[in-house]
Amino acid sequence: MASHQILNEKVIDYSLYLVTGRDLLPPGKSYLESLEQSLKGGVKIVQIREKSVDTAEFLKVARESQILCKKYKVPILINDRIDIALAMHADGVHLGQTDMPVSIARGLLPKGSIIGVSCNNVDEIKAAIKDRVDYVGIGAVWGTKTKELTSPIVSVRGVGEMLNHLNGTHIKAVAIGGIKATNLLRTLHGSVSTSGRALDGIAVVSDIVGSKDPLDASRRLCDIFREFRNALPTSVASHHPYTPDYIKASASRLLEDLKLINPLVQQITNIVVANQSANATLALGASPIMASAPEEMEDLSHVIGSLLVNFGTIKDKEGMLVGGHHANLNKKPVIFDPVGVGATRFRRAAADELLNTWQASVIKGNAGELAALAKSDEVKAKGVDSVGTGFADPGRFVKQLALTERCVVVMTGPTDWISDGVTVVRLDNGNKLLADITGSGCMVGTCVAVFCAAAASSAVQRFEGKLVSGDMLCGAVAGVLALTIASELAAARSDVRGTGTFLPALIDELYNLTAAKIQQYAKIEVVG
Ligand SMILES: Cc1ncc(COP(=O)(O)OP(=O)(O)O)c(N)n1
Ligand SMILES: Cc1nc(C(=O)O)sc1CCOP(=O)(O)O
User: Fold this and answer.
1) Per the CB 3.0–4.6 Å rule, which of 228, 331, 410, 508 could disulfide with 465?
2) Is the dihedral of CA 137, 139, 143, 148 positive or negative?
C-alpha cells in the first residue's frame, strides 16, 4: 500500500511528518537551520505548530518555513489556525478534536486543501471517516514530554485496532507521540491492523527538533521507515509454503544448529520452574542465564540468542519491560509465556503493558491463558490451568491471535496448535505424564526460546526492517516437538515408574534428542 496520497495533482507523502516545536531546539540552533536540515534529511511533510505566540509571530514563522518547504517541494500544514492557513496559502491544516469542525474548515479553505484530524480512539476515527478527512494523526502512541496529554496513551496495539476501521477508505494514518529512532521499528510493527494495514507515516517533534543534527535524525527515521516498508508484510512469517516435511526438516536442522551455536538463552522465569528450565536448556545444548534485574538487560541483550519472559510468579515486571525493549532493539526473539494471565486483574494489566512495550516473537500459553489474553470468554481458566474442552476451532483462534499480536502463537494442550497468522500447524506428540508434573508448560516455553535462538542466530537472510530474522514458526514448532517427543520417549522407559522418575528421564531424553528422532516421531499436520 502506498504511503502517499494524490491531492490536486500533488502527491502527498506522509512517511516522515515533522511537527515543529521551536521551544525544543537545542541551545544555539536556529529554527530555520534546523528545519532546512530536517528537510534535507528526508522530512516529507511539515506542520507548523505554535502554541504560545501571537498571530503576527505565528504568521511570520509559517511564511519563513513555507519558503524552505517550497524549496524542498514539501507541503506545509498549519496546526489549529484556519486564519493563518488562509493568510499564507498553506497546503492544509491539522485540527484537534476541540478545534474548528472539519465541515466548517472545509468550507473556509480552498478546494483541495489537506485536512487532518487528531484521533485518540475508535469513535474519533469513525467520525473522521464520516468527515472524509485526508489523514488522521493517531496519538499519543507512547508517552511524550512535548505536550501535556489530555487523553489516554493509545499504545501500538491500540493504533492497530484503530487502523482496522480505516480499511476500505482512502484516509491516510500517521502515529504521533514519543516516536523516536529507538522505538520506531517496534512502533511500526506493532501498529498494524489484522488485515495488514500499516501506518502511512509517523509524526515527530522532539526526536528531530531536539536534535543537534536534525539531518541525521531525520535520515535515521526515514531509513527505518523504508526498511520496514521493504520487509515482509508480517513481522515473523517467513512465507515459506510450509509442508509437514519441510517443518520436520527445519526442526531437525535447528537442533543440529543449536548444538553448534550453543546460544545463550536469557530467562526471566518463576521460582517454581527455574531449576528444571535451566537444566532443559543445557540438555538441549544451549546455555541458560536466569537474569531478571532491569539494570543488566541492555548488556545482556547484545549477547543473548533469545529472551524468555515467563509470567509465573510475576515479581520482575520492570526487568521484563526493560528486557523485552532491549531484545527488540537488538533484534533478539522474545518468547512470552503469560502463565495464569487470566487469574488476576494485575496479571491481565501487566500482560497488556508488556505487549504494548515490546513485541513478542512467540506467545505461548494454554487455551485458558490465550483466551484471557485475547479477551475471549470461550475458554475459562482456573489459576494457571485451562478448564473445559477448549476452543471449538483452535486453529482459527491461534491464527487470529497471531494476526492481532503480530507474532507466532503456540497453544499447548493434548494437541498443540501453532500459527504465524498465515499457516496453522497441528502437533500431536506428548505423553500425559507431562500434565502431572509441575512446570511442563514452562519447559515448553524454554524449549521454544532455545530453538528460536537457534533460528535467529542461523538465519541466512537478514531484513533490517524486521524485528527478528529467522523462521520463528519453525523455531516454535521445534521447541514444542523437542519437549513432547522427549516426553514420549521418557514415559516409555522401563525406569520411569511415576512422576518422580519421569522428570529426570525427560531431561535425559532432551539431552539425547537427535535430528533423526525428530524426523522419526514428529506428528505434524499443516491445517491452514
Ligand atoms: C499529525 C498530528 N497529529 C496530532 C496532533 C495533535 O493535534 P491537536 O489535537 O490539535 O493538539 P495540539 O497539537 O494542538 O496540541 C498534531 N498536532 N499533529
Ligand atoms: C503534538 C502532539 N500531539 C499529540 C497527540 O497525542 O495528539 S502527541 C504530540 C507531541 C509529539 O511530540 P514528540 O514527537 O516529541 O513526542
Assistant:
1) 228
2) positive
Distance 140 CA to ligand 2 centre (A): 6
Distance (angstroms) between ligand 2 centre and the Cα of 319 equals 27
pLDDT in tens, 435-455: 999 999 999 999 999 999 999
- 509's grid cell: 531424553
Ligand 1: which of 16, 100, 118, 138 to mutate, most ligand atoms within 8 Å of CB?
A: 118
3-state secondary structure of 423: coil
Nearest residue by C-alpha to atom 11 in ligand 1:
96
**Residue 77 three-state SS:** strand
Ligand 1 environment, Cβ below 6 A = 17, 19, 47, 49, 79-80, 94, 96, 99, 116, 118, 137, 139, 147, 174, 176, 203
Crossing angle between the packed helical segments 440-457 and 274-284, to the nearest 10 degrees: 40
Closest-approaching ligand to the CA atom of 211: 2
Distance, in Å, from the CA atom of 229 to the CA atom of 251, rounded to the nearest integer, reads 29
Q: What is the DSSP letter of 21?
A: -
Whether the per-residue pLDDT at 2 is higher than 60: the answer is no
How distant is the alpha carbon of residue 127 from its chain centre? Answer: 27
> For residues 434 and 178, what is the distance between their CA atoms, to the nearest angstrom?
45
Q: What is the pTM of this model?
A: 0.89
Amino acid occupying residue 154: V
- Pocket flag, ligand 2, residue 19 (CB < 6 Å): yes
Burial label, 221 (beta-carbon count in 10 A; 0-12, 13-18, 19+) = buried
Ligand 1 centroid vs 96 CA: distance in angstroms?
A: 6
Q: Which ligand is nearest to the CA of 51?
A: 1
Question: Could you read off the pLDDT of 321-369 as tens digits, one per residue?
Answer: 999 999 999 999 999 999 989 889 999 999 999 999 999 999 999 999 9
Place of cell 506428528: 523
Q: Degrees (nearest 5) of the Cα angle 315, 319, 321?
A: 105
Residue ranges of domains in the chain, CATH in brackets: 16-231 (3.20.20.70), 244-527 (3.40.1190.20)
CA-based nearest residue to 52, from 18, 76, 20: 20
User: For residue 424, how many other CB atoms are within 10 A of its CB?
Assistant: 23
ipTM score of the complex? 0.99
User: What share of the chain has pLDDT > 70, as a percent?
Assistant: 95
93: helix, coil or strand? strand
* Residue 175, helix vs strand vs coil: strand
Q: 376: which residues sit within 8 A by CB, 6+ positions away?
A: 397
Q: Which ligand is nearest to the CA of 47?
A: 1
Alpha-carbon Rg for the chain, nearest whole angstrom, is 25
* 474 part of the active site: no
Nearest to 225 by CA among 13, 15, 463, 43: 15
Expressed in angstroms and rounded, the spacing between residue 151 Cα and the centre of ligand 2 is 12
